[in-house]
Specification:
Elements: E1 2-5, E2 11-14, H1 27-57, H2 60-71, H3 73-100, H4 107-136
Antiparallel strand pairs: 1-2
Helix pairs in contact: 1-2, 1-3, 2-3, 3-4
Length: about 140
């Protein structure tokens, strides 16, 4: 810890580096952390895309095993998570592009666009999965 003298001359202890325990979570900080987490999830998700594509190159048996994996409950859960990650990262990325032109920095707009990002991600994820299940004849 370091000390910093105030205007009255008394020493005031301050942390060297503030951390998450010091701050109250706000929608902007939570969405920023989620944006980074979704980007990491998409990076890991690319491994599954590579697996699926390479299985197609290795022949029908390998492709069938990949399809079985992605059709299993754990595979479906992974795909659901990756779908949400994709739409969240996309919607929040568009929000960041709007910020890049200097718009939307007042607190009411920050909150409103944050809520729009979350609902958009959930809505597009649900819509994508409903359409996929309808087209597959499952629903």
């Amino acid at each position: 810890m370091t000390s910093e003298k105030s205007t009255t001359g008394a020493a005031k202890a301050r942390p060297l580096s503030p951390h998450l325990q010091v701050y109250n979570p706000q929608i902007t900080s939570v969405l920023s952390i989620l944006h980074r987490m979704m980007g990491v999830a998409l990076s890991f998700g690319s491994v599954f895309l590579i697996y699926w594509l390479s299985s197609a190159a290795y022949g029908p048996d390998a492709y069938g095993r990949a399809q079985d994996f992605f059709g299993s409950p754990i595979g479906q859960l992974i795909l659901l998570g990756l779908t949400f990650s994709l739409f969240y990262h996309l919607a929040n990325g568009i929000r960041h592009l709007i910020w890049d032109v200097g718009l939307g920095f007042d607190m009411p707009m920050l909150r409103a666009t944050g809520i729009v990002v979350v609902f958009t991600a959930f809505g597009l994820t649900a819509l994508t999965w409903i359409v996929a299940y309808v087209r597959a004849g499952i629903i």
